[in-house]
Amino acid sequence: MHLEKYSVRGFRSLADVADIPISSPTILAGPNDGGKTAALGALGFLLGAHTVTEDDRSYLAGEAGGRCTDTEVVGDFRLDAWEQEKFGLPTELRIRRWTDGDLVPRFEIWGSVPDDEELRDLSGKLVPELKELATRFGIRLPKPTKPVLLAALVEYGREHSSGQGWSGMPPALADRLPRLTEFEGHSLDPEAAIRSVLAVQFKSYMAEENVQGRVRELETDARDWLGMQAKPLADHIVERFGDIASVTVEAEVSFSPLLRSTSLRLERASGEQVRLDRSGRGSARRVSMAVWEGTSELLVEHAGSEVDPEVGPPVQVIVAYDEPDTHLDYHFQREVMGIIRRQGAAEHVSVVVATHSMNLIDGVDIRDVVLLRLDAARRTVVQRLGSAEHAEFDRHLGTIAAAVGLRNSVLLHERCFLAVEGDTEQLVIPVLFNLSEGMSLQAAGVALWACGGNDGALKLACYLHKHGRSVMLMIDADSEANSRIFRQPNLTRHFGQDKDRVTRMVGKMSNVRELEELFDDETWARTANEAWPRDSGWTPQDFAAHRGRKFSGGVERMLQEHSEQRPGKPEMLWEIAVRLERPTDVPAELRDIFADLRSLAG
């Protein structure tokens, strides 16, 4: 079975979180205590790796308080052809693991519900109860062991059902659940990492048919031996009670595939014995890195093994990392991303990473990033730039964001987005904002990108605005007439009634047409004499002559005709911006825009 996504209800801060995807990799991002570790814990509960305690139950909202009574994790799985034939199930299957007040976990599948209520939950029943049910429904079995009884009763219940709902899962299906192996970056425990990897390998080894045969033989021998040991006790009961003819003691024996511990011993080339916990964090990091790299090879080998027709194809392995970049420097963070990519590329392997690392967040497709955060009630909610219903648009959105230079971490975390018209604005706005506000755009929480005449960039701005993100679109006043995409009807189509709040027509308040025209003639002449000198010098009148028409175009032609440097438009305004010294040197209209921008970001 291949897990594609899962939903959680009633587990820690995850009161009701839907559709966390499982990709290669999935990145769980978000602030501290936002629910990343809880999401990994819920995944472990679904796959049978974790148990739920009373402390894991979500607190109820409202005045009543207390904890919820039910905890459930529901997974959407895809079955391979072998599993469909083996269990008689469809390609897509929904499985849940849940527990109520008794804290006893139960596996159930969504599908046909047995008409008889006693067949709907068989997991807690003992062998005598199962035998009684089999007899009542006319089910005859040559060797009525518990697994055989459960499988037969589940099949009977499926055949005698008339509705849909949750019912008991076939016991053998649990063996096809994905294997979960976990790495905790903060623990710096290579032995735990090795144990986690070997546990997956050991479970696969125990599932092999020849191994299972030997285990069943041992279980049978042990059961017979225990029966012989119990016979004197049974005979004693018969002796004490004259109305009892015979007593039989049936012992159920199971040798579980449990890897108890692993130990890691190091010896230096000099022969010196080394205890890893006494070698410092640097050594532990290096060994952990080697373990992670070795894990990739083990997973690839496991995924590529031959299919045993009795056991079935290899099951999915999900590698879960909880902040793997903790305690690692920038270089090793990049190394971890490479390891994760190699693991995720292996067949039947998926990777889920809970992290704060911008390297990891920026290293995947935006569709594979899940942002978890707490709402006002301190309940985890999922925020994604897109939804399952718009997968193609999400792909297009990610392409646009990459094209305009917006990384995933910026899309997820920045407080405000400023879209400017072209290369000139993208070059000089950071300089002018820093001078005006006394801080950089980044420090203010503002992400800047240039539209470049691209309608897709406007769609990105619209999408961010639609999803409640703060966006400002800064456009030259004359662009409305010069460019179709910046005309009022098109802006209204993108931003609706917020058009006037989102868009700023630069120069309109100063009765000029474009950004370059906001700077006075004296500033232009002073800059030209320093950056592009000529024999006769530049005067304010040289620049005033170009006002009333396309100012930037006229100035660019003039400077190129009379200057050896032949500057372009972005370079012209850059030379202006870097020579300004005081906040008041920034034109007043721009200072007002920057103040509004800081307010949005705040």
TrEMBL record:
It holds the Pfam family OLD-like_TOPRIM. The keyword Nuclease applies. PANTHER family: ATP/GTP PHOSPHATASE, EXCINUCLEASE ATPASE SUBUNIT. This is ATP-dependent endonuclease. InterPro entries: Bact_Antivir_Def_Nuclease, P-loop_NTPase, TOPRIM_OLD. It comes from Saccharothrix xinjiangensis. Residues 417-478 form the OLD protein-like TOPRIM domain. GO terms for molecular function: endonuclease activity. Keywords: Endonuclease, Hydrolase, Nuclease.
